[in-house]
Amino acid sequence: MPIPWSAASTRIPAVEHRAITIQQLRDLRLFLQRLCKVGLLKRPDGSPIHWFHINMYDICNLVLKPVISFVEEQRGSRGKFSWVELVARDRQMPYLLFSHSWSGRFRDFMAAVDDLARGKSLTMTVPVWICIFANNQFGQDFGTGLRDSPFYKAVMAAEEGTLLMVDRDASSLQRIWCGFELHLTINLGKPLVVYTSAGQVGVSVTSGRLVEAVEDFDVTQMEASQDSDRRQIINFLCGGETTEKKGLTTDQDGNFQLVNGWQKLLSDVTTAPAAPRRQDGKLEYVQEAELFELHSAKFQKLNVTVRDKVLSAANVGEGVKQTAGIKIPRIEDRGVTLGEMRAFVKKVKSWCSEEGHSWETLTINEISKTYIPTLTAGKDTCLAEMWSSGPRKPQIVLDETWHSPMSELAAALEWFAEASRLQDNAVLFFTPLCIDVCNQKRDNPDWARSIRNLLQNGEGLLSVLPQTEEQIARSNRLEQLHLCFQEGKQIYLGCSHGVLACTSPFQDVIWEFGHFHAQLAQTLLQSSWSQARCANDSVRERVHQLISQSRGGYDGFEARLMRVAGGPVLRDAALRGGSEAVKVIYSIAGRQGFLINSAVLKGSLGETAVHIAAASGNLLALRALLDCRADPNAEDHIRETPMHYAAMTGMLGSIQLLLKYGAEPTAESAFAEDALFVAQQNPARFLGTHTKKATALLQAWAIASEDAKKNLPYHGGASSEELIANNTNDGDDAISVSSISTRLQL
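^ thats the sequence. predicted structure below, dont judge the formating
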């Protein structure tokens, strides 16, 4: 793909004219995806940043600023620009302003951009104003007051108003700059639309974390990176520009005194212990506490206005009046909707806060024994019956571990809902809500038959895995997975950071959504299922007989698990490298019936273990994969092969090994680029990546004879020491096609 910046920078003096087009955003997204999938973007501790986790802070510090500095230095300039000035050829007037939080996932942000473009039929040239790309991150002049700030000017300039982007954690509703932008948008009478990664509120989204967060929206609890910015905005909301400098240090001319040219200082830092604490737990300042009390009506009006605008768009009112105590005799008819599950989770969180429990550690079992009975006691019913006006057949059965935290199941469910694009009315089966926990004998005359009917009549199973083998290998989970395999039902595995599709892909034709923990998958595959545990001996024996008498028995079941859940383990081994990783690869790929080139094993960007081993230069792992007949020409989501990955990271040894195993170096990606083009372009050079040796090898290979190619060193029988020694991308010392041809006997 073309690198996402233009041949020359363009100075655009007016910051409000530095909007970024949808195409420029998509170019940046693809660039970031490439950097993430080859493992070049890392956190300070050295851990790679996954595409599903990268946020605006990462992008600014690891990409935008380094790229701008590198490109300008290459051009013989020391100029510092905004990203838009680097990628645009002229000023770009904003169609819309995006109000968002930097801590939200960029992947979610771009999902909203795509949905906006589809829903509004926008062309790729439409520009939207986004602060991180419009402001000069090396030191933007924010003016002498908020009316001179980029945010004020951009709200004024955006012809179609403001789009509020609410991320998974609703952090944009906790940032004071977003509150400022919402205040301006509403006061100016401009349009306000709200999006999540699932789409526009009121069109695709009517419940979930967004609605929960908006219901609790309170501008007085919003924060900023700098307390001085928070104070200035609160002053402005109370009295406009005439009062915005109150409590901030100014010089004799009334201008802000700045540290490092941009940071304002508080002149009064007295705190008010009696006032409500801030969202971050800090004591509130006296000045802010007094303003909140004095101007409470103004803040309340803003809070109510924002809530009304968003919730009315989401069609959220008082809710549907539900008749309590509807008796539904058959357990398999007691579904609960996704919207009801989300509402239940919100209530449990509130209860945790009131009772002093930790939401992060509170188990499903504890909730079932303590909280749910407070809702159903004396009613001889379950919550599903209380919430329903009649039978509802579940589409998906949630397989939970009662001793696992409810927070993990809730997180996995959100990942699954997003990956599957579930609507609020999707019907689920969650045992604690669908049986009478106060009188389980009433609901358990034939639990095995009920579960079988649930799975046979539904679409499949979401199994949320706990952390330990003891909790994973349970008889109930074994039976449910077995039934889904036998009936051809959908199987999804979930954890707090992502979900795996095991039998058919998610809607975007991907098999992993988020980042499924490799260690969890490893524990699942290494579990001794023949020793599956159960508190009820008769259930354990019944399930044992069921599996033992099935086709393939326990070996067959474990082989099926390996085939569908081996991807994260293989990719992790490819990333780690070393002799232990090789053992893992052979133990999985050598399993009878295992298809190492199956699409189900691919990562969230279509990458295989071979892609990862090639990019990271782990030659022992790469050779093990290739020896197991992994495809050296496998294609990812943009048809890049392992050779493209190795060329991008400059891994000379990976290129040699891939060539020896039949990789096609002239294979082109979706952008008509082969590995040689990638190496010559070196898109990651700003990170210190060297690709001249890789370029020379690929050029030499292109002109070499067939006999010379057969004599390529470091063939399949090379020693481990030789492979490790050949793993290098160090240095871009002068090297020519002829010299590398001679050295490699081409």
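The CA atoms of residues 620 and 719 lie 9 Å apart.
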